[in-house]
Amino acid sequence: MHNENLHLWQHSHTFGQDLKRPGEVRTLIVIAITGTMMVVEIVTGILFGSMALLADGLHMASHAAALSINAFAYIYARRHAQDMHFSFGTGKVNALGGFSGAVLLALFALLMAWESVHRLLNPVDILFNQAILVAVLGLIVNGVSVYILGVNGPHHDHGEQHPHDDHRHAHHHDHNLKSAYLHVSADALTSILAIAALLAAKYFGLIWMDPAMGIVGAALVTQWSLSLLRVTGGVLLDQQGPESIRHKIKQSIEEDRDSRVADLHLWSIGPNIYSVIITVVAHDPGTPDEYKARIPKHLGLAHIAIEVHECATDTVEQLRHLG
């Protein structure tokens, strides 16, 4: 066979990762907003001698750094999409960015809990008016950021993955975007809890509310972080894809009584993009292309490998009973 004919069986492994994702632009906008607020708070904190403003400015800096990791993941995946060193493209960089963001989110929650417990045991004087102003400013900035990252985004993700032909809903499973969304959501939650606690402390003398709310916030952020770690960790470790998709693949292959799926491996190689390896046994087997043609086109399968084996009729019957 001439080498020039090989292109008939070859295909690209970019799987759309060379295109700029909506989450990339949104994340860069939020970084700009967060960075601007960070500079304003640090500068005014130094000029006016306000530790509250300075502390919140440094807090903003930590989240700007975390969001920068998310932005880097988008850019890296897009620029290296054509790199043949990546067997199935750079889709998993998205999950890696989400996983890294979730780890930072967990560390942020740990620091929140540590500082809150310390202040609960060792109360400090609070400049209420100044602290409330900082919390309100932070809430406004983070509220805008949550809206930017959340429009048609992570808050519509209900866990079960349902790929579509044109990938219009791929952002539902953009783990990198979800990480950025959770970071600004954690900040917004912190601001809301802080405002409530500061008002309670100022008007009712409940000083303990400030650190107590910090502990509540840390617990919620930890829950978000663990959820994202579980999902992105599964992607990075090639966990089996959704049962609903595996069932449809098996059902389509076994539409005739003679063919049975002996082995099936489905795993994610990007947001709403899957690769699958299938072993089919049959008494009178068809070709791999014939079996591939049976599989529905809307399942998000970008890379399909089918191995076919001929076997005795009684073996097929045994597999039917096992299945």
CATH architecture of the largest domain: Up-down Bundle
How many domains?
Answer: 2
Number of helices in the DSSP assignment: 9
What distance lies between the first and last C-alpha atoms, to the nearest angstrom?
A: 40 Å
Proportion of β residues?
5-15%
Q: Radius of gyration in whole Å, from Cα?
A: 26 Å
CATH class category name of the largest domain: Mainly Alpha
Strand arrangement in the largest pleated sheet = 1-2-3
Q: Helices and strands: which structural class? A: mainly alpha
Helix content: 55-70%
Average pLDDT, rounded to a whole number, is 82
H/E series, N to C?
HHHHHHHEEHEH
The major β-sheet equals: 3 strands, mixed
Say what the CATH topology of the largest domain is: Alpha-lytic protease prodomain-like
Shape, per Cα inertia axes: elongated
Got a strand count? Answer: 3
Residue stretches low in confidence (pLDDT < 50, at least 5 long) are 156-171
CATH level-four homologous superfamily name of the largest domain: Cation efflux protein transmembrane domain
Highlighted features:
2 domains; three-stranded mixed β-sheet; elongated; Alpha-lytic protease prodomain-like; 323 residues; mainly alpha; Alpha-Beta Plaits
